[in-house]
TrEMBL record:
Residues 1-22 form the signal peptide. Transmembrane segments: none annotated. The keyword Glycoprotein does not apply. It comes from the Bacteria. This is Tetratricopeptide (TPR) repeat protein. TPR repeats lie at residues 80-113, 114-147. Keywords: Signal, TPR repeat.
Amino acid sequence: MICTRDLALLAGLVLAAPGLTACDGPVEDPSGTGAAEPTQAAQQRADIAAMHGERALLAGDLALARAWLEPGEFSAETRAEGFRSLGRLEMAQGNLPAAGAAFDQSYRADPASAGLWVDIGRLRYAGGEQAQALEAVDRALAIDPAHAEALRFRGQLARDAQGLATGAEWFARALELHPQNRELRLDLAATLSDAGRAQDALAVLRGGDGTAAAAPRGLFVQAVIAARGGDVALARDLLERSGLAKDGVASAQLLSALIDLQQENYAIAAVTLDRLYSRQPDNRRIRDLLAFALSRSAGERELVRRFAGIVADDPASAYLRTLIGRAYEALGDRARAARFLDQPAIASGQLTALPSLSPVRIAPTSQATGALQLRDQVRHAIVAGDGEAAVTRAAELARRFPGSADAQAVLGDASFAVGDKPAARAAYGRAARIRLGWPLALRLARAQDDVPRAQRMLADYVRQNPMNGEAAAALADSYATQGDWPRAVGLLDHALDLGMGRVPWVLAARSVGARQLGDADEAMSYALAAHELEPMNPLAISALLAAMPDDGSAARAELEAKLRSLQSR
């Protein structure tokens, strides 16, 4: 899975390759006599270079692999595999243009290699050309419909675009054809785990020759399952045995931080989350978790220093705003605390531009203007209310990176911001065919003019991704607006089980649902919980008023006055 979920700096596949250099050091004489002529030694090397280079690559010895592969001196019989291995080596070291050049050489030697087209697809995905990646893997499957790695990559793309359920179906079909393929088994187990099918995931891991369960990824999947089941000690043990957190794998480090939070090791969690946040500054989940860890580890000063300014640019983050307000309270600054705690909440899911650290000034674009710069310019233009500049920059981004889901999503955001829903729907749709995460799914639903169609989109997303609490809550909200409270309450309970119990509007909605179904005590309980989390949330106040008896009490009068004040702003 692609961890950064962001635009790469490269658009093309095959760019100019740097000059190839000769292999360092003498070539050992395969005969052991030292009497081989130079031409004979060169031929002997050409015969074995591809094989030895691939072995070194698989063993993780990239320096040795480069020594064998970089000269590009392969026999006619091994030329295709040699350059393919060289391309994979360049990809492993982040040299995407050089990888493209190597794959081009491999293609010239053997254009009908399914494995090569899989590698080309992965290169295109890494280079921001996700649509072209899908074309490449489909070409691989046309060459060899049973190719294991092609089926695996196609399953990964299906998981990104259609969801966990469809991805699991792809992996399961592939594993039937290749029951001893450990990577397929691990992908299927991880996908089933993410879909909430823990027992099925464990059964898959223990199947085959049984080695998948002991592999690092297999141990990590089991650690996730244990953590979700509440057995944090087992989760920690499995995670440490996997070694992935020590190796710097972001998902493993995040799980480590979550375990530390569960065990109230807040300072340790804050250190881990801080490192992750520096690598993924646009990841709001990590940001909010870091803020929570700081708030629980006497880090109030650091919390307000780092995030108070961000909330001003990101008013939809009610949770972060509340943490900052309470941090100011702990520091004795009640005036600043009130500014954050008394600010009315904005409805969940409202479209807002992510903040950026780049300058607000929107400079003229040129071919030297990078993808990230263009994206940040679009975001700033949306925040500044300059819709024309936002659409212009977003269109330029999409033109340069036509196969990028991220570029199409940004174009959709700009179009949505200026009220052009048809253009937003088209851009979001193109992005969704490549990768449909929850933020994009919500935007795509909001861009629909047909309410039933939007609801069907949400329902399909929840079916594909049953462990997404935000999606379940949003679908519940759509049912609630239609008066279908039994279905809405079921989904709200599911969302609460998935961790949405700290979201005021979800608790408020559950209170209303309880009242609609005739449970007054439950309605009051949920309303009080919502109001305690965010006292100035209009939905929480409304839910509490609805749950309270109409007895003219001072408490009720105070809540009514507070609600009128918020509604008049």
